[in-house]
């Protein structure tokens, strides 16, 4: 006897909730980046702080892109395959641009 597994229906966060989460996350990243830049502004820059500031800047860019997807109405859809991303994916990484399967393929 064979068992067929079906995926749980994809549910996205409402755009207003998503925008709020992303906006708050963006503000946190900006504060953390400012702190990292302040740490690295010494006579001998802290390489870890400089690296962290760079990663935070990249995250801010990803958040900005997610906010744009909300405005365009494509938020929650994978940018590669077009599939609806699961609520769990968006809760774990609200600025995700790809579903887990496509993200793994691009690594």
Which features does this protein show?
60% helix; mainly alpha; disordered N terminus; elongated; 4 helices; Four Helix Bundle (Hemerythrin (Met), subunit A); 107 residues
Q: Which second-level CATH architecture applies?
A: Up-down Bundle
Q: Count helical runs.
A: 4
Helix-strand pattern: HHHH
What would you call the shape?
elongated
Question: Could you say what the CATH topology is called?
Answer: Four Helix Bundle (Hemerythrin (Met), subunit A)
Determine the CATH superfamily. DksA, coiled-coil domain
The CATH first-level class comes to Mainly Alpha
Q: β content, as a range?
A: under 5%
Over the alpha carbons, how many angstroms does the gyration radius reach?
17 Å
| Whole-number mean pLDDT | 85
**Strand segment count:** 0
> How would a textbook summarize the main sheet?
none
Name the poorly predicted regions: 1-12
């Amino acid at each position: 006897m064979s068992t067929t597994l079906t995926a749980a229906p994809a549910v996205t966060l409402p755009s207003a909730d998503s925008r709020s989460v992303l906006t708050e996350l963006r503000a946190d990243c900006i504060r953390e980046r400012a702190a990292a830049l302040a740490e690295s502004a010494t006579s001998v820059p802290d390489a870890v702080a400089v690296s962290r500031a760079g990663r935070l800047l990249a995250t801010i860019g990803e958040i900005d892109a997610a906010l744009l997807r909300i405005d365009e109405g494509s938020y929650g859809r994978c940018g590669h395959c077009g599939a609806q991303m699961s609520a769990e994916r968006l809760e774990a990484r609200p600025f995700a641009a790809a579903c887990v399967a496509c993200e793994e393929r691009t690594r």
